[in-house]
Amino acid sequence: MRVALFVACFDDALFPATGRAVTALLERLGHDVSYPPGQTCCGQMHWTTGYHREAAGLARAFTAAFEGAEAIVAPSASCAAAVRDAYPRIARAARDAALARAAEELAVYELTEFLVDVLGVTDVGAYFPHRVTYHPSCQSARTLGVADRPLRLLRAVKGLDLVELPAAQECCGFGGAFAMKNADVSVAMVADKVRHVRDTGADVVCAVDNGCLAHIGGALSRLRGGVRVMHLAEILAGTGPA
Amino acid sequence: MTGAPPGPRTPAGAPGARGEPGAGAAPPKFAVAARAALADTGLRRGLRAGAAAVRERRSAAPEPADWEDLREAGRAIRDGALLGLDAHLEELERAVTEAGGRVHWAAGAAEARRIVTGLVRAAGAAEVVKSTSAVAREIGLNGALARAGVAVRETGFAELVAQLAEDDPEGPAPYRDRARIRELFARRLPGAAGGPPGDPAALAEAARLHLRERFLGARVAVTGANFLVAETGTVVLLESEGNARMCLTLPDTLICVAGIEKVVPAWADMEVLLQLLPRSASGAPMTPYVSSWTGVTAGDGPREFHLVLLDNGRTKALADEVGRAALRCIGCSACLDVCPVYERTGPAPYGPVRAGPIGAILTPQLRGVERAAEASLPFASTLCGACADVCPVKIDIPEVLVHLRGRVVESRRHRPVPTPELVLMRGLAWTMADPRRYEAAVRRGTRWARLMSRGGRIRRLPGLLGKWTEARDLPAPPPETFRAWWSRRHR
Amino acid sequence: MSSRDEMLRRVREALGGARGAPPEVPRRYERRLSAEDAAAGADVPALFGERVAENRAAVRHVGADELATAVAAALWGREAKQIVVPADLPFGWLAELDGVRAMADRPAIDVDALAAADGVVTGCAVAIAETGTVVLDGGPTQGRRVLTLLPAYHLCVVQAEQIVGTVPEAVGRLDPARPLTWISGPSAAYGADMPGAEGMHGPRHLEVLVVED
Question: Residue limits of the Cysteine-rich domain (chain A) (predicted)?
């Protein structure tokens, strides 16, 4: 299958390893991966921060960059949610029928949805001999409804010891601009998340959103938490002694 | 509802307690007010325990099998009420009047205060008993009655405690555990001789004894309403303590103050709403007491009934196609119960209208977004969506929050001096609009960020981003972006 | 322009083209007890009894010929000496009272005497199985609202045929023109760190006798 990679701007600059992992993973599964060079930012940040005109401009550029793609795959639930869930709203707010139509044409998937639903695989042949816990980010769990797909993928990873995260469904407190505009509340929230992560005794906490992971990881690092944060894709890309 | 979690406290009725809402010193932004709440460890402990108790209640009471069908029906009933609001209000007025009640129309808070004060005066009462009412708090009714020389007796337990403690209605609501309530009662309730022991039943008994005298002697009562049935002119009120029953049964004159959005078209609609509201409010299939009345009934209850219908910004919310969804709210407080932000800040930072996620979308619409306090409310959320999941009338709170953020930004777009954020966001959008500009900017940013990092982590960022590094590190960007890696690989 | 006209004008202007186009209400929810609920409760009065008990109220099932004895026993159990009753309460319900003075609400009993009474005995208009609720509408055997409000103990007699399965069935049977009081357990204070503080202002104890033949 021809897969167009959608690498969020945030991931491009700060977490390039995630995009490389998705590339490696999908190629290992025998798919033809491309990276449409016209992509920059999906406009999520502008939309959720209230800069709706700017978001509409970025959404138009995005739909142009991915026009005609068979399947668009993003290792970011919040960016996939922006395209699937917010673009129709952005188009409505901008009264832009062409954008609404273009957005409807886009077949965008969050990585775990693509693997489980489109490719029909849960065992991707990964090996990762560590104790891992999973944080279901709000956009993945609530907006996209990926449900247990990430967990099914993780359970199939050889050597991986999956431990349940207490109060997993509670938001980590990132929320994009919220982390800056309401920094104190955001920090109070992540403090609880970090406590739950440490309670699991896991070596690694993973998720399908690098925004949340940067937030959780940033707090863990400040508290010298001793737990690594890792995007789920990087775990799935890992191979070792088969 | 009386059974709701602690809401913003009602004014103690001190003269000048709150004149015209919005007058005086500007209230603080959410983030600033939240800081005080976060520093109150007692409040945080109480909120956390409250949230845990709610989670337990919810998991102990599984949703009925037809819950989603009830929610769909509830949403449609409330939408129908709003889309035909003018006709329903006229029908309601007709039905209430035919049943011997009187309907008063208040376009704003001042008019509502004037109407209620006038009615109390006309009844010749120097004291009113009052049950929990969000609208009374919204319009600053207690202060107005106090200025008119009328003593207001709060009868809901939480409101009684706040009144006895003389809490500042605009300040943060202090958390009080049983020991502190006991101490307060011992000091302030002359009847509670020697101070009741600290068990809940004894505290309830002290409140019961104190208020019983007030109830038996009361001539005028003020209540809120959960629903106003247009077809029949029926007011429906849910509560758990029995204080509202006292208010709507014992006095000669009953004054009910309600927002115009409380209207529902038909009595049959109650078959849905009386399932949605109790379960969402407390997890129980039914609230202990549901009372309804239609006008006055000879020989049973008040001889005079007045219904005060309040606009006070509701028609402004109604005019907003996205924002009007907030008016569907039936006041269950389920969104507060599950909100991770509310769990940490409590009600005070949301201001006096409504707390929690529903307050964050309702208050800015009722009061406008000109002031920083109201403008900050739509941003007081991570958009995690837990509220929308539980809302019994399916208000998409995150959607309305984002919509209102847009309104806040638009309202500030044409200021003579643009906000730093506007400059930044415009600049970013311009940069992102072109892949080459974007690449160059990322290259520049990466270079700077790497210079600021130590051991692969950034511990301090300048400007707007400095808020991030107050308590969190950021990983230093790797030297090669994904984009650069891709083009190197495919060269 | 009066405030009334001004508010109605604002509403019409706010709604614009959307005005008066109410959406169809999808009523797919259950109007009667679902098969599982009915099966779990074996029958409607039994389910009602279970739910009343879950509302922290006492409940007993009695035969019609045992009612007077059950009323007397319940009052005896609460050590009630002086009770109040609606003027039209069937005399037979109180036929077995021993050492309890029942005061009928005619002429109307004043509030101080009501507050001083040890209890009140009434019937109801409708009862709801799925929620364990009794609904009073001021009709026969129920009296004025205040009768069941001030005494500390409320003994409510429910005839099996008065019990419906669900809230929609109850709403359909009730007349909103009457003063309705739905009672689901004793009063309580929630929140404010007050777990289990029962009996704030209404009766502290609710007891239900379900009469089945």
Answer: 3-83, 132-216
For the domain made up of C33-212, the CATH class stated in words is: alpha beta
User: Please, which residues 389-448 of chain B have a Cβ atom closer than 8 Å to chain A?
Assistant: 389, 399, 402-403, 405-410, 421-422, 425-426, 428-429, 432-435, 438, 442, 445-446
Between B and C, how many CB-CB pairs are < 8 A? 267
Q: B424 and B385 share a domain?
A: no
Q: What pTM value is reported for the model?
A: 0.94
B426 contacts A218? CB cut-off 8 A: no
CATH code assigned at B397: 3.40.50.10420
Nearest alpha carbon to residue C90 among C142, C42, C15 = C142
**Subunits in contact with chain B (3 or more CB pairs closer than 8 Å):** A, C
Question: For helices B30-39 and A183-199, what crossing angle results, to 10°?
Answer: 50
Asked if B303 reaches chain C (Cβ–Cβ under 8 Å), the answer is no
Domains in chain A, number: 2
> Is residue C162 helix, strand or coil?
helix
Range of the domain at A223: 131-237
For A116, B207, B275, the CA distances from C28, given in Å and listed in that order, are: 33, 44, 14
Give the chains touching A; criterion: ≥3 Cβ pairs < 8 Å: B
Distance in angstroms (rounded) separating the CA atoms of residues B219 and B364: 37
Q: Where are the beta strands (DSSP E) in B349-471?
A: 457-458
Distance from C-alpha of B113 to C-alpha of B222, rounded to nearest angstrom: 12
Instruction: Say whether C193 and B176 touch across the interface (CB within 8 A).
Output: yes
ipTM, 2 dp:
0.96
B chain contacts of residue A15, beta-carbon cutoff 8 Å: 475
Residues B384, B478: one domain?
no
Q: Which residues pair with B474 in a beta bridge?
A: B458
- Statement to judge: residues B407 and B438 lie in one domain: no
Q: Which of A118, A143, A163 finishes a domain?
A: A118
What's the confidence (pLDDT) of residue C124?
98
Give the tens place of pLDDT for each residue, B28-73: 999 999 998 899 888 888 888 888 887 787 778 788 999 999 999 9
**B319: nearest CA in chain C?**
C14
Q: For A75-88, write each residue's pLDDT tens digit.
A: 999 999 999 999 99
Neighbours of A240 (CB within 10 A): 10
